[in-house]
Design goal:
The chain is an alpha/beta fold and 438 residues long. Helix content is 36%, strand content 19%. The strands form three sheets. It has a seven-stranded mixed sheet, covered by helices on one side. The chain is globular and about 65 Å long. The protein starts with a strand and ends with a strand. The structure holds fe (ii) ion (FE2) (2 copies). One fe (ii) ion binds next to loops.
Length: 438
């Protein structure tokens, strides 16, 4: 097979600005969000322009969450952008996901959430037919999953795990049986085969294993099924995070999941992927380009970083809001305490480099850094040291929680999971890596 190079862009969450994206209702919504809404159409347009300028790569793959929330006008706007790619000679393959159909989407006008025209799951088949389905060798009508030969001798199973006809985030037994047939056909035809899916198949960071919809359901079974049948690579989105992970089935087969960030907000990356041969994949990350928006003198990356840093603590403040004494106290501590003050309360020594850092501010930086991948808080750093001490101090409580979280005989090691979530200790980069599939 010849090397195959393509762009992987995901979670474009396009929003048609004329539906309304200003005023109090919008401000209330956006202050907790790491992703952009009013800016989304401009970001997508700038990225499409950038991809069109690259005359070397002719394929773009987009695994879901194309619109903000299934607004019909957002789909029309996004499809206009896809058509620009097509007119420039690009082949475009998409799948849709949970944010692409909705009975009740809305715009933001003044203080109001104003209902706008919705999109049903059934309608998506026709809307996006020209972007993958029309090229398909096989289609699973129930979920709109399909198989296409994306380059000579290279096939792609585009799983749609987020339809309204199966469990959310699920590649169930029926869909696996359909996939098995397609994989066998590809092999009989001498093709390499990989897959795309909206949900990550492997949890992007260890702690996401504990969050039900942060990964495909029964992910170990699904990853093993794919690896044992000769599909060793998945390209995914949904969690808006940059990560590359591997997993081995009981039979010893390797499975690799490359999860890519949201396009329209922090961390704002897309990827250039090269399938070099049956065993080698190169993933490169690209920052979202400058886009037409008053960013107050900031670059796109600074603008997204800034957003993450204020949105993440706001989410925590929202979770802590309430009139009870405990909630008020917790809010005050969260808003005002430095690491040194928290350390004194927990009887933990804090390294001097971070003693004066406000904890609320740090939660924003942590969210920014975890979602960017290549998380910097590895062993030996002050933050790692503090977190390790906190977990040691609360070991008896953590043991009880771990027992409660034990599932199918697998007992989570919460300390290990947390420390490997805040620091990338995997030995390879989440952003730019050459990966072996076997
Ligand atoms: Fe998304
Ligand atoms: Fe999603």
């Amino acid at each position: 097979m010849k090397p195959f190079k393509f762009y992987l862009v995901t979670d474009t969450h396009y929003f048609e600005p004329s539906l309304g994206c200003s005023g109090k209702a919008y401000d209330d919504y956006t202050k907790n969000e790491m992703y952009c809404l009013a800016e989304a159409s401009s970001i997508v347009k700038a990225t499409v322009d950038e991809i069109i300028r690259d005359t070397e790569i002719d394929t773009v793959i987009i695994p879901g969450d194309l619109s903000k929330n299934g607004e019909k006008q957002s789909h029309y706007g996004f499809i206009r952008e896809l058509n620009r790619l097509k007119d420039a000679g690009k082949k475009v393959y998409v799948i849709t996901a949970g944010h692409d159909f909705n009975d009740n989407p809305h715009g933001y006008v003044g203080e109001e959430h104003v209902p706008v025209e919705p999109t049903s799951f059934d309608e998506l088949f026709g809307l996006y037919y020209d972007f993958g389905l029309s090229d398909a060798l096989a289609i699973d009508k129930q979920t709109h999953s399909y198989v296409a030969e994306v380059a000579e001798g290279i096939r792609m199973i585009a799983f749609n795990c987020d339809s309204d006809r199966s469990n959310k985030g699920c590649i169930d037994e029926r869909l696996q049986a359909w996939a098995k047939e397609q994989i066998d056909k590809a092999k009989a035809d001498g093709c390499f085969i990989f897959c795309i899916n909206h949900y990550p198949i492997i949890p992007s960071v260890p702690l996401f294993d504990l969050i039900g919809d942060a990964h495909i359901k029964e992910w170990r079974q699904v990853a093993s099924f794919l690896a044992d049948n000769g599909v060793n690579l998945a390209l995914t989105g949904h969690m808006h995070i940059q990560s590359i992970n591997e997993f081995y089935s009981d039979a010893g087969n390797k499975f690799v999941d490359i999860c890519t960030s949201i396009l329209v907000g922090s961390p704002g990356k897309y990827r250039k992927i090269t399938i070099e041969d049956e065993n080698t994949v190169i993933a490169e990350s690209i920052n979202v380009p400058e886009f037409d928006w008053d960013k107050g003198g900031m670059t796109t990356e600074e603008y997204f970083d800034d957003r993450a840093v204020w949105a993440a603590p706001n989410r925590i403040r929202r979770a802590l809001s309430g009139d009870s004494f405990l909630k008020k106290k917790a809010t005050k501590i969260f808003n005002t305490n430095t690491f040194a003050q928290l350390g004194r309360k927990l009887c933990i020594g804090v390294p001097k480099e971070i003693r004066d850092k406000k904890f609320a501010e740090f939660t924003g930086e942590l969210a920014r850094d975890v979602f960017k991948g290549d998380q910097p808080y590895v062993k030996g750093t002050p933050i790692y040291t503090v977190f390790a001490k906190v977990f040691k101090r609360f070991r008896p409580i953590i043991k009880i929680v771990e027992k409660k979280l034990t599932k199918n005989g697998i007992r989570p090691d919460l300390t290990d999971m947390l420390l490997n979530t805040i620091g990338n200790n995997k030995g390879w980069s989440d952003n730019n890596a050459t990966i072996k599939l076997k």
